[in-house]
Amino acid sequence: MKTRKRFTVKYRLLSAFIILLLVPTTLIGLFSYQKSKEELEKHYIKSASESVNVINNMVTSIIEPKMDNVSIFSEEIQASSSEEENSTKSQSLLDDYMKFHQDLDTVYVGTELGTMIRSQQKDLGSDYDPRERPWYQLAMENKGEVVVTDPLCLQELVI
Predict the structure, then answer these.
(1) Using one digit for the tens of pLDDT, what is the confidence trace for 42-58?
(2) Model confidence over 96-127: pLDDT tens digits?
(3) Which pLDDT tens digit goes with each residue over 123-139?
(4) Residues 1, 70: one domain?
(5) Which domain holds residue 72?
(6) Residues 72, 91: one domain?
(7) pTM of the full structure
(8) What is the pLDDT at residue 25?
(9) Are residues 12 and 75 part of one domain?
């Protein structure tokens, strides 16, 4: 019977010792994990936000000069007196602009008479009317302002 009492006391002491060590250690580990998780989430959100701001600034620095150029083109094109003179002058302006802005795929103007003037002469078909396009309609809804539409996707895929 003595051996049983010793084992029981030994067992109780060992159990108490393990509980006193494991419970606080486990709690410290859980709290540390939770705090680290929260800090990492904050860091990722801050990093993503900074990346979005950098990209936004880059896009703005690319788009704003183009918007200024569109305003100038608008004034130049409206200054012409006849549709034919306007078309010739516009074609020349667009061709010259494309020479100095090779980051663009094409530059074009749609007129109120349905004429399409492009920097690259491509056959759009006789039934093509720019007045039916969303970009033209948006521009006409906001006369006197430069509007930005969603990018137009080319049918070409280059990898």
Answers:
(1) 999 999 999 999 999 99
(2) 888 888 888 778 888 788 878 877 766 777 77
(3) 777 777 888 888 888 88
(4) yes
(5) 1-79
(6) no
(7) 0.60
(8) 94
(9) yes
Tokens of 20: 């006193």
Task: Give the number of other CB atoms < 10 A from CB of residue 95.
Answer: 14
Residue 108 near residue 91 (C-beta atoms within 8 A): no
Cβ neighbours of residue 86 closer than 8 Å, sequence gap 6 or more: 77, 80, 111
30 pLDDT above the threshold of 80: yes
Domain shared by 63 and 135, yes or no: no
From the list 139, 100, 136, the residue with the least C-alpha distance to 119 is 100
- What is the count of structural domains for the chain? 2
Residue type, 152: L
Distance CA 142, CA 147 (A): 7
Asked if residue 87 and residue 72 are part of one domain, the reply reads no
